[in-house]
Design goal:
314 residues, alpha/beta, Glutathione S-transferase Yfyf (Class Pi), Chain A, domain 2, globular, binds glutathione
Length: 314
């Protein structure tokens, strides 16, 4: 029997929402392990080898980290319906990869910074959560005066981006690429969706026809999922053997296979690298293996984009 898809995630995580939408678009069945949004994450870090960010997709003794790597793997294993409905699939892939670089960096930064400053008294922003995020980003918690200025600054950057999305949808198309939902919808949706989640309200800042399109995307759902306890996911990893790692095509300067390495995000979360033995590397992806009492041997996959790889002493 094929191993189940197990998504480790939490409800208001926008990157998790990106993957949940992909699972929905593909109509997949999956298991849901709810992880804490703040450290410590005692049943999560043993799987990822130390990486803290959400989400991760577990399949037996394999763990895929970062939405780019997770979505690539879902498309490889479950090609139909495709995230790139075409007709020119190669051009669509390139277009969506570009879109994703914008929405995963600038757009998401502006939507989260704006919401957390303008709606700082919303329920989500508990003292524990704010302290965790200040440590994650390596920045002090903002005071009231700073919050007002930061809300204005981020709103001034957000408005033109909302205008781009508005213009893109203003010809009445149902989805970003036309009649079929594609990965483009998922990558633009999640940074807007998180504003409602964090503020606890349907923000009027998001105008029509963007709202209508968001409702249409949301109606596609998240596929079929059932909850799973985190301890069960660890047991399943321990009971499985990871398959042989993907073939390698290393570049000059890359650590050699078999060396102990640390994989660290280049943007935030740098204090929590994933550590293990390098088992696969090429221009686009890399994988390491680690073994811990609660998981046995696990392969952890990352994209190269957005992560730094360095050799560490074992
Ligand atoms: N580039 C990563 C970013 C993941 C990310 O930043 N996730 C947020 C949640 S939406 C996170 O992990 N925040 C800190 C935490 O939950 O510990 C990806 O695409 O998966």
């Amino acid at each position: 029997m094929a191993a189940e898809l197990i998504l480790h995630h939490y409800d208001f995580s926008n990157y998790s929402e990106k993957v949940r939408l992909v699972l929905g678009l593909k109509g997949l069945s999956w298991r849901s392990v709810e992880i804490p949004p703040v450290l410590p994450k005692p049943d999560y870090l043993p799987l990822t080898g130390g990486y803290r960010r959400a989400p991760a997709l577990q399949i037996g003794a394999e763990v895929y980290c970062d939405t780019v790597r997770i979505i690539e793997e879902l498309e490889r294993r479950f090609p139909q319906p495709s995230l790139y409905p075409g007709p020119d699939v190669a051009a669509q892939r390139a277009f969506i990869a570009g879109l994703e670089r914008w929405t995963d960096s600038i757009l998401i930064r502006n939507t989260i910074n704006y919401t957390s400053c303008a709606y700082a008294d919303a329920e989500r922003f508990t003292p524990d959560f704010l302290a965790d995020r200040a440590a994650l980003l390596g920045k002090p918690e903002p005071g009231l005066a700073h919050r007002r200025a930061a809300a204005d600054k981020n709103l001034s950057q957000l408005r033109p981006q909302l205008a781009w999305i508005h213009d893109l949808l203003s010809d009445g198309r149902p989805y970003v690429c036309g009649d079929s939902m594609s990965l483009a919808d998922c990558v633009i949706y999640h940074p807007l969706w998180v504003m409602d989640q964090l503020s606890g309200q349907r923000l009027a800042l998001i105008p029509e026809p963007i709202r209508r399109w968001m409702d249409r995307v949301a109606a596609r759902g998240h596929g079929n999922f059932r909850p799973m306890r985190s301890s069960e996911a660890l047991d399943l990893a321990a009971a499985a053997d990871p398959p042989p790692p993907p073939p390698s095509e290393p570049f000059d300067g890359d650590p050699a296979l078999g060396q102990t390495v640390a994989v660290t995000p280049t943007d935030y979360g740098k204090a929590n690298p994933s550590i293990g033995t390098l088992v696969s590397i090429d221009a686009v992806r890399m994988a390491l293996q680690h073994s811990q009492a609660r998981t046995g041997l696990v392969t952890v996959h990352f994209p190269r984009f957005g992560y730094q790889l360095r050799q560490v002493s074992s």
